[in-house]
Amino acid sequence: MGISGRFSGWRVLKEGLTGNKGWTPHWRDPEPKREYDVVIVGGGGHGLATAYYLAREHGLRNIAVLEKGYLGGGNVGRNTTIVRANYYLPGNSEFYSHSLRLWEGLEQDLNYNAMMSQRGILNVFHNDGQRDATIRRANAIINQGDDAEILYRDQLRQMVPFLNYDNNRFPIMGALLQRRAGTARHDAVAWGYARGADQFGVDLIQNCEVTGIDVAGGRVVGVQTARGPIKAKKVALAAAGRSGQVAALAGLTLPIESHVLQAFVTEGLKPVIDHVITFAEGHLYISQSDKGGLVFGSYLDFYSSYAARGNLAMQEHTMEAIAAMVPAVTKARLLRSWGGIMDMTPDGSPIIDHTPIAGLYLNAGWCYGGFKATPASGHCFAHLIATDRPHAAATGFKLDRFRTGRGLMDEEGTGAQHNLH
Ligand SMILES: Cc1cc2nc3c(=O)[nH]c(=O)nc-3n(C[C@H](O)[C@H](O)[C@H](O)COP(=O)(O)OP(=O)(O)OC[C@H]3O[C@@H](n4cnc5c(N)ncnc54)[C@H](O)[C@@H]3O)c2cc1C
């Protein structure tokens, strides 16, 4: 049996009867080698998924994931776990569709319980304009081959009676429902991919900050790290909120601003909210975790920052919005809040592409929606790294669209202003 062991019903029974003494670490803790075929910078969801698919789909084995802290300590463990495929624009819609299909098979694929819960997402609308845009979006989603339903006020009220339907400014008119959407346990996703990659021989190296990217003759040749230099034929950046800083190590300036996004959780309650619910008002969203906490959040903090904590003004806005839309939440005690650093692009869509430096690949710009993208991001980034061609589901995520202006995917129609997404 490998170091990670295998999960099975029989194994759980056996361990349960023998004091759970036979479990071993899920992945090795190797020393870095002097050279790899592929070095991935960033041990978050996207970096780990990339390593896994590079090994599983493309047969590469000499791979390292370099993580400056611990695996899963970044945004993959800080998000609010929402998974959905209800994007409107071509370029995004097929990518997130691909991702949801990968989510649906992920636990079997990894033999890991990621607590995938397809409890359905409701995107609530409040006025005629939002209703029309929502219907257009539902039609686009259905044309894409995914599920979408429009519910009007009375149907919605039967499903979720506890919302404030008669708020003066933001009365609730209906919602877009995607039943296959839901949540997954965020850090279990990182652990599952880490364990899967490790089983293929990928070296997962923690406490290994990348401090330099070595380039010779226009080609990447390796990285400098807190644990010494490492040579590499290919280097793949998957550093999420730190993408701008990491790319700068190779002399690149990215079209990315880093902003804080906060989230909040209450004390554990008995099950009260069955779905994920988002509101067009206040960018608000809420769901209930399997532990019982009500998990909610709203906008970005609206200024650039690398601090993984947020400001009071946005906390106040979020509390106002939740009290207005889901008044019962005001009876619960807030347990804690936290923040994460978002890599915001001008059009709110990501980048999976080559860079101007040969052998250096970029996966970035996930804004506040990269958790749901994790499987497809890893899958498509691995395809690009292994074949040097974009995956069919990720042809639009070009780095040069911000220079040429062609191919922008402005999902929210907010224009080229990072802080309005
Ligand atoms: C509060 C909040 C709520 C969110 N909610 C959702 C949601 O509901 N649904 C959704 O789809 N998305 C959501 N997101 C967004 C999602 O979490 C991110 O887009 C996604 O996790 C980013 O990809 P990642 O997992 O690879 O990032 P990370 O986990 O941040 O991985 C990047 C890693 O790179 C490492 N790194 C950085 N610099 C270096 C370096 N120099 N050397 C080595 N390693 C380095 C970091 O330590 C980090 O571990 C949310 C984010 C936040 C903060």
UniProtKB/TrEMBL annotation:
Keywords attached to this entry: Cytoplasm, FAD, Flavoprotein, FMN, Nucleotide-binding, Oxidoreductase
GO cellular component: cytoplasm
SUPFAM superfamilies: FAD-linked reductases, C-terminal domain (SSF54373), FAD/NAD(P)-binding domain (SSF51905)
Sequence ranges assigned to domain Rhodanese in this UniProt record: 38-82
Cofactor: FMN; FAD
MF terms in GO: nucleotide binding; sarcosine oxidase activity
GO process annotations (BP): tetrahydrofolate metabolic process
Entry protein name: Sarcosine oxidase subunit beta
Taxonomic classification: Bacteria, Pseudomonadati, Pseudomonadota, Alphaproteobacteria, Rhodobacterales
The encoding gene: soxB_1
